[in-house]
């Protein structure tokens, strides 16, 4: 809309002061479109990099948001293709929510560039990097980086600690209210409701998981460091010698020797990770290999954020009881 046309109408408005009905009718639509906040649609369109943030946005936004996750629960969020369907989703998005900390470095920059939606570029209000709102674990040094570690900005898998989910929920709810001022109060109310249910659930999980304190885990990838910190589980080894480098025969042989007389309680992998390395080590050491949902939808039991943590803890306790 041209600035000069706007000024012209304003001058017309002042000059006639309701004197001429035609001027008023010409002027009103211009003012209307100028003053109403420009939202692309009635619903806030939220594009997330991972399913857990789509689930969280739905908890806060309910019927007033639409969500679309770039990655599915059975995909490795480190590696996906910037498909045309995803580019179209980002182009239409009002808000993009990603874990960040380098998790999506292999595909998100290309996706944002191709979508060319300036409102959701990093640094804009339409982009929210979830890991900025938590204390990142495992910031590695330059030596690890040169060896191929894919977590140089700290560990990005923050969703495995419910306290992190709560911190992101607060930032996300606030941001949604800023982007859609007509529903700020609704988002605030939903956020408060979610947080009170979430806090109660978190206390329940902490109570149930108490027997897990001090248990020892070998994990496929460094996907579970926040869960371990939260529940007092000790990570004793990884199947990947360096984060992001697939398990090698040499490394697995070394682990077999190291854990042949015990020293670990679980071998943990995510649903999208190849089972062979876990099972191979489990066969040779007798240590239980288990699958935990890394996000919503990762297992049949993990239908939402609440049941995801229910399922993670139930699976760990079950494995412990079977020892
Ligand atoms: Zn990772």
Q: How would the blueprint of this fold be written?
A:
Blueprint: H1 3-16, H2 21-35, E1 44-48, H3 51-61, E2 65-69, H4 84-92, E3 95-98, H5 108-115, E4 127-129, H6 142-146, H7 162-179, H8 184-208, E5 216-219, H9 225-231, E6 234-238, H10 249-259, E7 266-269, H11 275-285, E8 288-291, H12 305-321
Parallel strand pairs: 1-2, 1-3, 3-4, 5-6, 5-7, 7-8
Helix pairs in contact: 1-2, 3-7, 4-5, 7-8, 8-12, 10-11
The structure holds zinc ion (ZN).
**Overall pLDDT level:** 88
How many extended strands? 8
Between the first and last Cα atoms, what is the distance in angstroms?
Answer: 70 Å
- Main sheet strand line-up: 2-1-3-4
Q: What would you call the quaternary organization?
A: single chain
Low-confidence stretches are 1-37
Look at the helices and sheets and give the structural class: alpha/beta
**Helix count, DSSP H or I runs of 4 or more residues:** 12
Ligand inventory: zinc ion
Percent of residues in β-strands: 5-15%
Molecular shape = globular
Gyration radius, in Å: 25 Å
The helical percent reads 40-55%
User: Main beta sheet: strand number and arrangement?
Assistant: 4 strands, parallel
The H-and-E topology, N to C, reads as HHEHEHEHEHHHEHEHEHEH
Structure at a glance:
By secondary structure, the protein is α/β, with parallel strands linked by helices.
Protein described:
This protein has 323 residues and is of the alpha/beta class. The chain contains twelve helices and eight strands. The strands form two sheets. The protein has a four-stranded parallel β-sheet, sandwiched between helices. A four-stranded parallel β-sheet has the order 6-5-7-8, sandwiched between helices. Helix 4 (84-92) crosses helix 5 and helix 8 (184-208) runs parallel beside helix 12 (305-321). Bound molecules: zinc ion. Residues 78, 150-151, 157, 221-222, 243 line the site of zinc ion.
